Amino acid sequence: MQLTTLLLSLTALSSLALVQAQTCTTDEDCSLNGICAPQTHSCLCDAGWFGSDCGHLDLAPATRWTGYNHTNYTDPTYYNTRGNSSWGGQIIQDRGDPALFHLLVDQFGHGCGLSAWRPTSFVARAESRTGPQGPYTWVQNVTGSFRHNAYVHWYPAEEKYLLWTIGVDVADPSSCKSVSKTSWPNNISVAAASSIQGPWSKFHITVNGTNPAPFPVLSASSHQGSDAIDSRIALAAEDLKIYVADRWDAAYKLVHTTPPWNTSDYSPTWTEDPFVWQDKRGHWHALAHWMIDIVEKKGTKYPRVGAHMFARTLQGRWNFKLHEAFNSTVAFTDGSVQTFNRRERPKVFFSEDGEMTPLYLVTGVQPLGTTALSYTLIQPIGSAWKEYEKRLGF
């Protein structure tokens, strides 16, 4: 009887702990990815997110050889015979042809791999006629070397595309030898074009930094249904430093310095490669490469790799919960599961209906057992992507 009573007591305590863990009082307790229901004090998560605090991406199985994966490419006319590696990109739906999707991707030239990203990286454009998941086929080189950290988006204030990179214009590298970061200064640059096919303007240097994460600012009137177009640009950089400019080629002002939880490398809150967006409520979010496994496992880069940060305003206070938003283990539609050595450079493709529902996660991945080959993986999120593709006829 005493043992039974003890077990019942432990069960009750476990249940109480679970309830307490799921209790919320503000929307911040729901990672601003949902709302805290006042009746139940539990989080009602937005589509594409799950968990007691809505802090985890609801990733669906990916399909093999979609995305931009040409690691088995052996055509010596351009890529040499060692395969074609890439490291993440940005999905863009064609504005004139909704069934055509573009992927601007960081690609490494001449068969070189991820270990030679500096100086062989350049920006390429690929296309898919089979839906936003791809597979994508190379169409054109957008830049020469060295250009990296590519991010492209539509800028409604001037009806242009903006292409952001780090880099410097150099002669096409003749080998896969890596170049030290001290040899070239970091800078975030932006170019503009009226068409995703180009031609692109000369790159304009915005700030000293790396890993650009720009996003057009939506004013309060925009969220209230006004037709007013805001020309401001928010630009996050490494360590979640955030700048704002009145327009894309104007002066950038620092509005948020490095948060206190990201001021030192090899800390449990060490992150890089932010991707920033503004949600339907006007709140701000960032996904980033969380370096926690490097910290805890002395250089191991997997499996906990994705962090989510959030704030009500660009200026903060930014919040970071110490759990993974996604990891490097991927389930595939063929029933297989693969854990990657590296999974970084997260970017999200959202619905176009104003709800900002996440539909696809784009990351650069590197399989276990290699230090060179890498490719760009596109993985569906939640279930809204199914209806999205159905409406497009896929």
From TrEMBL:
It comes from the Eukaryota. Gene3D superfamilies: Laminin. Residues 1-21 form the signal peptide. This is EGF-like domain-containing protein. Residues 20-55 form the EGF-like domain. CDD domains: GH43_62_32_68_117_130-like. Disulfide bonds join C45-C54. The keyword Hydrolase does not apply. Keywords: Disulfide bond, EGF-like domain, Signal.
